[in-house]
Design brief:
The chain has 315 residues and is an alpha+beta fold. 32% of the residues lie in helices and 26% in strands. The strands form two sheets. Strands 1, 2, 3, 4, 5, 6 and 11 form a seven-stranded mixed beta sheet that branches. The protein has a four-stranded antiparallel beta sheet with strand order 8-9-7-10. It is globular, with a radius of gyration of 20 Å.
Length: 315
């Protein structure tokens, strides 16, 4: 290796929305909004591992310290589990995914870091193993599976810690509207507010609707998606953390709107629609505008491809 020919490995990972209303911790959808990371191997003995980050809200605050940076931590996690040592690297991060926005920013960073952990060792990325490690780090598989495989995924974890994900067809006719209020909400805080137990009636309610969501997509029964996205496990409890969310769920149905849900742990809201996209986005945004939260609206397609990687040489 020479200083003029530094190996560089790049990964790109999509954002994701999870739960889709009733599918708590099991349904995920990759979105065309990306985290890109380049890891350049450093040959100089005195070089220090470091990171440089650019992008949307919160990205510049990503820690440069390897012990605090999630991408570095994921790289080290892979190295520790697989029994190899990490070389010194310089990370260049370009991020389009709002941090703490409920759009899978930490899942994307975790998947990116695990993949780079293998790549900088010249190894292939074993996606099934990465799925398990990422789920262990994140605590749930829906976002990480969508980030890893792309498209719409149905996930589950076995008692032994192994994880499975089934990738399903996502109809191109269904557009995704993401409305993000100017409010950072850590997943840890959003999870802490959830009840420790639920009634049988509420559990059955969500089981029925999460199954219905998958079946409705498969059979193109889009008229059933509104019912399929109703939830009793997490959205009601989280409304107290997100001003304006109650108003969003109280909006009258607009022609073309298939359903609305909190995206992951929030605070972003995701709406599925086939028509009147702009009108729907503005109606949801108005609920947050009235609370002074200056929301952003994005009209997105499902990302059909998940994690991608490449190798280059920098001179």
């Amino acid at each position: 290796m020479t200083a003029s020919r530094q190996p560089s490995f790049e990964v790109r990972v999509p954002a994701s929305t999870a739960n889709m209303g009733a599918g708590f911790d099991c349904l995920g959808l990759a979105l065309e909004m990306y985290l890109s990371v380049r890891a350049t191997l450093l040959s100089q003995p005195s070089a220090r591992t470091q990171a440089r980050s650019r992008g949307v809200r919160g990205t510049s605050a990503l820690p440069k310290d390897p012990d605090q940076n999630l991408i570095f931590r994921a790289m080290r996690f892979a190295a520790d589990r697989e029994g190899f040592s990490l070389p010194r690297v310089r990370l260049a991060v370009q991020n389009e995914i709002p941090v703490a926005g409920g759009l899978g920013s930490s899942a994307a960073a975790t998947v990116a870091g695990l993949a780079l952990g293998y790549l900088v060792q010249g190894r292939q990325v074993p996606k099934e193993t990465v799925l398990r490690y990422a789920t262990e780090m994140e605590g749930h598989p829906d976002n990480v599976a969508a980030a890893l495989f792309g498209g719409f995924v149905v996930t589950f974890a076995r008692p032994d810690g192994s994880v499975a994900a089934l990738r399903k067809r996502w109809p191109k006719v269904i557009r995704v509207i993401v409305v993000t209020p100017d409010l950072a909400l850590e997943t840890k805080k959003s999870r802490a507010i959830l009840p420790q137990s639920v009634s049988r009636a509420d559990a059955v309610f969500n089981l029925q609707r999460s199954a219905l969501f998958v079946a409705a997509l498969e059979e193109r029964r889009y008229d059933l998606i509104w019912d399929a996205m109703q939830d009793r496990l997490h959205q009601t409890a989280r409304q107290s953390l997100i001003p304006g969310l109650t108003d969003v769920f109280a909006l009258p149905r607009i022609s073309g709107l298939l359903g609305v849900a909190l995206s992951g742990a929030g605070p972003s809201v995701v709406a599925l629609a086939t028509d009147r996209i702009d009108e729907i986005g503005k109606a949801i945004a108005a609920c947050f505008d009235r609370r002074g939260l200056s929301p952003t609206i994005q009209y997105l397609e499902a990302a059909q491809e998940g994690l991608t990687s490449s190798q280059k040489y920098l001179s």
